[in-house]
Fold this protein.
Amino acid sequence: MLQNARWRWRIDATTRLENWLEIERDQLALWVPVALGLGVALWFWIPGRTGWITLLLLAAACAAAGGAVGNSRRLGRALLWFGVMTALGCALIWWRAERLSAPVLERPIVTQFRADVIAVESLPARGAVRLLLAPRDAPALPPKVRVNIDQADASPAIQRGAVIALRARIMPPPDAAVPGAYDFRRLAWFQGIGGTGRALDAPEVVTPAPPALGTDFRQRLTRHVRDSIGGAEGAIAATLATGDRGAISEEDAEAMRRSGLAHLLSISGLHVTAVVAAAMLIVMRLLALSPTLALRWPLPLLSAGAGAMAGVGYTLLTGAEVPTIRSCVAAMIVLAGIALGREAITLRLIATGALFVLLCWPESVAGPSFQMSFAAVTALVALHEHPRVRALLARREEGIAMRFGRLLLGLLLTGLAVELALSPIALFHFHKAGAYGALANIVAIPLTTFVIMPLEAMALMFDLAGLGAPFWWLTGKALALLLGLAHMVASAPGAVAALPVMPAGAFALMASGGLWICLWRTWVRRLGAIPVLGGMLWALSVSPPDILVSNDGRHLALSDGRGGYALLRPRAGDYIRSALSESAGFDGELSELDSLPGARCSADACTAEIVRGTRRWRLLATRSSHIMPWDALRSACAGADIVVSDRRLPDACQPRWLKADRAMFAQTGGMAITLATGQIVTVKQGGDDHPWRNPPRPAGE
């Protein structure tokens, strides 16, 4: 009897699951790019080849289980395709990472060499010009390096296609400074960059660029837009026109980030959509002026074609970066849907675009750009496809006040959906998120889409006849309003929510829960709230580290026990200050270690007493390259629990708990130390087989 009851329960459960999948059959295809992305993400997360092979075998086992269940059942087909796509994602990113293998410098060098200029990027806000170079006569250098030169040394003849001679200090692409910080080494691997550095003197142009390459339309347009408006507004206008963000000051960029408006500076879906829609509207209106064309020609199809050409042209003009290409592909799919008379903006459209990007650039899944773009648009479409929201926001016969209120409600719901989707991603990658972004975007998105971009387009068009000045003036005023809004929101109390480094598991729970909520239609979607809440509680429960040390051991931030942090070297640069404070989840100014109670510092070293609960710790950190007396060093090490130094310490230096010197940092990279639990998190992991960890070296190095 008991066995029969269990058997009947299993049959009933299988039947219910099969019935549910039948109801959700239209949604199953949406999980294809999710499975592909899962395979890619797991390859990045798993450090070693053994783990990658295990992942492939598990995915194959999932596919085999689906085949065993039976292809005639939706559960079997779902398991089969999920396993196949997960394995494909892992294999695809593994193959691509190996295929892009290129030599990388092992140590810094100073060298004189000639190189072809591959790309030129002006950075006026930093007073520099960034060059991507292909060295010609330097066997000690990798095939591609990135070099910054002072803006004053940048000759106008340094253009794409020119050959230059220069002397520069080139270093290996840096690792993340501390756990959770920006990992340029991984990004450089997929871009083929084997070294970065700075020119030590003005480059000499050996061979000018060919005329076809030397005249860079994008650069000239960027300069024209900046000069037409000037100031900070001109820098924003140039970004919207060509995607060149080099002139935006750090103060304005930080205000845009803190206010939740930074997405307006990244040429993506919003900008491409505005350009395509404007082109379609203009062409449709102009063609409709002719009764013959209006009656005999398919104007929607012609306007969609014009919009497609405008979108492709804008993508090429703004540098054809991956986010812009992704948005352009999505726009083309929308236009194809319009041309075919189908509902264009659906979750299937988003899934198709994501699948295209993952197949072409699988490495983008690990970056915030891909995650933010698709998270925002998925949340928006899922929100507006919900029957209750669609009924609430549907147009109806009502007064102007009610219509305007319904519009504002739609904008508020849209802003909230975007903020809920983007906040976990921002906290995971940048460790802070704007708290008032939903409210700021209610004003900023319509202002940018319907005022600033059309005015800028009209200014450029009227400039052909020398009549663009009034439109540039109006554009500048609108941009001043946008910047004023960003600074006002950024400076408001509680404008930024900051957290220490979020565990990857917490982020994975929130991401999977969010996808579950967005991609299903029935009541089962509500179960996605469980992993979302679990991930949130996990992320909020993480304690800030007590000590953060940079990857070279030179810079250290120590918690003062009151929520702030103090720096070992007060003259640390802005980049390292930002990396340390963001990884600690601290949104404030870093103080000096010398000022902490219980700290004693000299020009060569600092000692500090750290009290955590009932335990007292003693820290010793060096901060100069001067040789310390042998007996004094040995005695100081013996009296310390933790010793941190950017130099190699002798064996006689034996602290009671941790000795972190140059030899250790070469193995671990930067580290975060939590004293209450004794946990040490490092940038590098043992057994990491990702190709950028052990890359090939230049032949002449």
